[in-house]
Amino acid sequence: MKRLLVAALSLFGFIGAGHAQGFGQRGGAPGDFDFYVLALSWSPGFCELDGDRGRNREQCGDGAGLRFVVHGLWPQNERGYPSDCGPAGRTPSRIALEQAEGVFPTESLARYEWRKHGTCSGSSPSDYFRDVRRARDKIAIPPPLAKAERDQTWTAIDLERAFTAANPGLRPDMMSVACKRGVLQEVRICLTKDLRDFRTCQQVDRSGCRARDFTVVAPR
Predict the structure, then answer these.
(1) Which of 50, 70, 85, 184 is the most exposed, having the fewest neighbouring CB atoms within 10 Å of its CB?
(2) pLDDT one-digit tens code per residue, 158-174
(3) 19 classed as catalytic
């Protein structure tokens, strides 16, 4: 069942992490969490629904051709999640941000995700961005999505099954699929704190798309 309280939309147009993660606790202790959620945004869907093309030219400009991109790597608890763990004013260095290049679709998103979620990881900015890359590289994208050239229609369970078939050890209760207005938004996959294994995550699993089916918008 979806929570009555939903985190506000981030300035990037994504549904906030709170929608998938339950209730947030601002200012938690860095490193004090149960597991990670890797959120992979389907970029054509984001650009179709929320991507102001002037503000998100890197991601949504003509010919960008992006498919799945990292929205975030979120520290998560069995119920709820920490956020904005500080210290206040700490920002990633240019050297740290080099670790995020090619992982997040924009530097502004990398900075935002570090501030809201990375500060709760207990890692330095450089190590956090390296972990984001490790998590992303662990996931194999199902071939129909890795090579999508035209709009497709999927159900949530079929998309989950495609991901589990492509990723040994992953099960439907270890992930969720998010949709918005009949369009695929993102896939959220739960990983252990050391990023070595997938793991169950009931609250995230229950937050998935309730639509009968949805469109996977092809890259433009």
Answers:
(1) 50
(2) 999 999 999 999 999 99
(3) no
Q: Which residue has the tokens 């199902």?
A: 142
Burial class (CB in 10 A: 0-12, 13-18, 19+), 42: buried
- DSSP letter for each residue of 89-141: T----HHHHHTTTTTSS-HHHHHHHHHHTGGGTTS-HHHHHHHHHHHHHHPPP
Is 113 among the residues known to form the active site? yes
How far apart are alpha carbons 44 and 105 in whole angstroms?
12
> What's the Cα-to-Cα distance from 28 to each of 24, 47, 62, 133, 192, rounded to whole Å?
9, 32, 40, 24, 19
Q: Is 71 noted as a catalytic residue in this protein?
A: yes
pLDDT one-digit tens code per residue, 129-141: 999 999 999 999 9
219 cis-preceded (ω within 30 degrees of 0): no
Span of 15-24, 78-87, 114-123 with lowest mean pLDDT: 15-24
Q: What is the pLDDT of residues 67-94, one digit of tens each?
A: 999 999 999 999 999 999 977 557 899 9
From 48, 113, 160, 186, the catalytic residue: 113
Task: Give the integer Cα–Cα distance in Å for 213 and 117.
Answer: 30
Alpha carbons 174 and 188: distance in angstroms, whole number: 9
Q: Active-site residue among 78, 101, 107, 117? A: 117
Q: How many CA atoms lie within 13 A of 16 on its CB side?
A: 17
Closest Cα partner for 193 from 109, 126, 134, 115? 134
Active-site residue among 19, 48, 71, 160?
71
